[in-house]
Amino acid sequence: MDFEEIYKTYWQKVYRLCMGYVNHTDQAKDLAQETFVKVWRQLPNFRGESAIGTWIFRITTNTCLRQIQKEKRMPKSELPPHMKLETSEVTIENHIQFLHQCISELKEIDRIIISLELEDIDQKEIAKIVGISEGNVRVKIHRIKEKLTKKFKENGY
Amino acid sequence: MDTNIDFKKIWNTQEVQKLEIADLYKKADRLKRYKRYQLMGANAILLITSCIIGGIWYRYQPEYVTTKIGLVLAILAMIIFLIPYNRWISLLKTNEGDNNKTYLRQLMQLKQKQIFQQKWMLSIYFVMLSLGIALYLFEYVSKMTGFWGIVVYTATLLWIGINWWYLRPRVIKKQNAKLDELLQKFEELNNQIQE
């Protein structure tokens, strides 16, 4: 697989994973860009020990985890007002916005796991990306979905 | 609890910001150049300092062995100070393609190594540079009158003392504060995985 093909196939998934982690469009774009720069640089050394997708998502999530090194993440309580939903009702238009907001309130590793799950990545693969057992992934996903459902219902979904 | 909300459907409604591949190549190039300049800059300082010291050696032809040892120690101090710039790029690498758990462990080890290096490197640097200066001065001070010799050495020792007891701890503290904070954050992330 050459780089341009990888780029076309994975840009959307990588961008959305980053968006799930940071809940900020510009930051997500920067992180996705950084991920692909790393993929481009390291592609000649990729030996196919894992599936190319697993490898790319590992780089993506590691890039997300490492970004705290560059800047301190804004504490949740200090989110600028425009990033918080004013309405208490979840409407069809702001579903995705609300989902992103709920995900951003989760712990970092949970954000990664749920974003991978929503991106329709196999749980076996998620286990390989994060480095935990498949059973653990299943339990975590179940708990996270429960939390999200609760929040959606509390907001009139 | 009922978990029948179709989050995947909602997730798939999001818009994705596009990026031209040409912009990506530009960014990759910029990064590569920046890293190269950073490395070249650090080594240029080393080279210039060594040339100046070498020039002094050649121009003034010191007679005493202490002067020569002093000069060598000063150059060595510079080299020790600059080693991390070269080593962190080559040896202390993390593998981005590893899983999150392994990667976080690597990041934690990297930070611990950096904290250790900064503390010891700086101390060794100060000791060698101070010793170098003291030895270098000996030849010239010994040709002065006793009074001026005492003045010069008192001033030098005072300067070394300020460096050791005031500047060195401050620099170490400042440099390590950020690393400590990051290490703590990475430990937190690692704990999340273990949960």
UniProtKB/TrEMBL annotation, chain A:
Keyword tags: Sigma factor, Transcription, Transcription regulation
Gene3D superfamilies xrefs: 1.10.1740.10, Winged helix-like DNA-binding domain superfamily/Winged helix DNA-binding domain
GO BP: DNA-templated transcription initiation
Molecular function terms, GO-annotated: DNA binding; sigma factor activity
Residues annotated as domain RNA polymerase sigma factor 70 region 4 type: 99-148
Keyword Transcription: yes
Keyword Signal among UniProt keywords: no
Pfam families: Sigma70_r2, Sigma70_r4_2
Occurrences of domain RNA polymerase sigma-70 region (ranges): 7-73
Similarity field: Belongs to the sigma-70 factor family. ECF subfamily.
PANTHER family (alphabetical): RNA POLYMERASE ECF-TYPE SIGMA FACTO, RNA POLYMERASE ECF-TYPE SIGMA FACTOR
Listed name of the protein: RNA polymerase sigma-70 factor, ECF subfamily
Protein species of origin: Aquimarina spongiae
High-level lineage: Bacteria, Pseudomonadati, Bacteroidota, Flavobacteriia, Flavobacteriales
From TrEMBL, chain B:
Keywords linked to the UniProt accession: Membrane, Transmembrane, Transmembrane helix
Transmembrane segments: 37-58, 64-83, 120-141, 147-167
Protein's name according to its UniProt entry: Uncharacterized protein
Organism: Aquimarina spongiae
